[in-house]
Design a protein that fits this description.
five-stranded antiparallel sheet; alpha/beta; Rossmann fold; 3 domains; 9 helices; six-stranded parallel sheet
């Protein structure tokens, strides 16, 4: 989400009377690649670019492709194959061993349904996962639909633009599957008379909201690191005890008595770090009443176990399902000692939990880092 926001900001600041632009989007990956589907890069015709579609190896050619799409006023789908030992193949020798499809879409500023305008609408909307269906290639007649068009899917009625029940049914089935597993994917529909429709179904979740409950000095590096990687940061504390400079770091500040005013959903992580036993004990049941996918607690294991036992004695025993989302002590075991290192371990753990991964050494992983197409 951080990259998308940077692209939107750059787009908004373009002098649209003088500068033209295109958006490059990774829509399919087969094998290994540095970036995955959904990676984007905004390119202007004066050679400026924001974002990225690789680790820097494809961006040079992508600049040329984007400017060509701008000149032709037509989207194009380009395949980069880094598996072939071909001196004429862009990316050869990189060792990525993957095939990457990138869609280059010239941006029509007056079109409020251009890809970036759609992204702007998604980021400005309420905290929810958005489903985008991007047309990547067409063959045959498709009711004026062309490569580069984006459909913001909210229900089957949005697929009526294809004017084909069979296509809508196939897409609906595939969209439902991708929503269920929470993953983006390319998809193709083949029909008689050599008609074909290729799309990229993207599941675009909102940014993770990190709710920090406390006010001690170790909260500051955690908030800064969270913002650096693109998380939204909400602080819950006694406003009178907060350093004024901190208000420039976080997105929102609430008092402890305002917890119910915060939008806490399945994309929210909460960290209890008041460094006060009674405060954390009082806030833990409140945190567990929310839909937060992660509830972390600072301090040694014996401290958290004492809190659990006392809550049970008070008639507030923690259910097994809630224990699964409590992480105490919070953080991955990286040997962290300083506030900055502890912040790193906590952020890494939150990302691990959200991604449904184990957080181990990659060199010990027996399968590919990412699912292979």
């Amino acid at each position: 989400m951080k990259e998308i926001k940077a692209i939107i900001s750059a787009y908004d600041n373009i002098d649209k009377n003088k500068v033209k632009a295109a958006l490059a989007t990774v829509v399919r990956v087969e094998g290994s690649s540095y970036r995955r589907t959904g990676a984007r890069m905004l390119v202007t015709d004066d050679g400026v670019w924001i974002g990225g579609i690789s680790g820097g190896c494809l961006e040079g050619d992508a600049l040329k492709r984007a400017r060509l799409a701008i000149a032709k006023s037509e989207s194009s789908l380009i395949t980069y194959d880094t598996t072939q030992d071909d001196a004429y193949q862009i990316g050869v020798g990189l060792g990525c061993n993957g095939v990457i499809d990138v869609l280059f879409t010239p941006l029509q500023y007056q079109n409020k349904n251009n890809p970036i305008e759609v992204l702007k609408e998604c980021t400005a909307a309420n905290r929810q996962a958005h489903i985008l269906v991007t047309i990547t290639a067409v063959n045959g007649v498709w009711n004026g639909i062309k490569a580069g068009d984006v459909i913001q899917y909210t229900g089957k009625q949005d697929l009526a633009v294809f004017e084909d029940t069979a296509v809508a049914d196939e897409l609906l089935q595939k969209i439902s599957h991708q929503v269920e597993i929470g993953k983006s994917a390319p998809f193709e529909v083949h029909l008689p008379e050599n008609r074909k429709l290729a799309v990229f179904i993207e599941i675009l979740p909102p940014e993770i909201n990190l709710v920090l409950m406390g006010h001690q000095y170790d909260i500051y590096p955690l908030a800064r690191l969270a913002k650096e990687i693109g998380l939204r940061v909400t602080m819950v504390s006694n406003p009178l005890k907060i350093n004024a400079k901190f208000f420039d770091t976080v997105d929102a500040v609430f008092g402890y008595d305002q917890l119910n005013s915060i939008s806490i959903d399945q994309y929210t992580a909460i960290v209890l770090m008041a460094h006060d036993y009674k405060t954390d004990k009082r806030n833990l049941p409140k945190a567990l009443q929310t839909d937060a996918f992660y509830v972390g607690m600072l301090g040694p294991r014996v401290r958290s176990e004492k809190i659990f036992n006392e809550l049970a004695s008070d008639g507030l025993a923690i259910a097994d399902a809630d224990m699964d989302r409590i992480f105490a002590p919070a953080g991955l075991d990286i040997g962290a000692t300083s506030p900055e290192e502890i912040a790193l371990s906590i952020i890494a753990e939150i990302k691990t939990v959200f991604s449904k991964r184990e957080g181990g050494f990659l060199k010990h992983r027996q399968t590919a880092i990412h699912e292979r197409g």
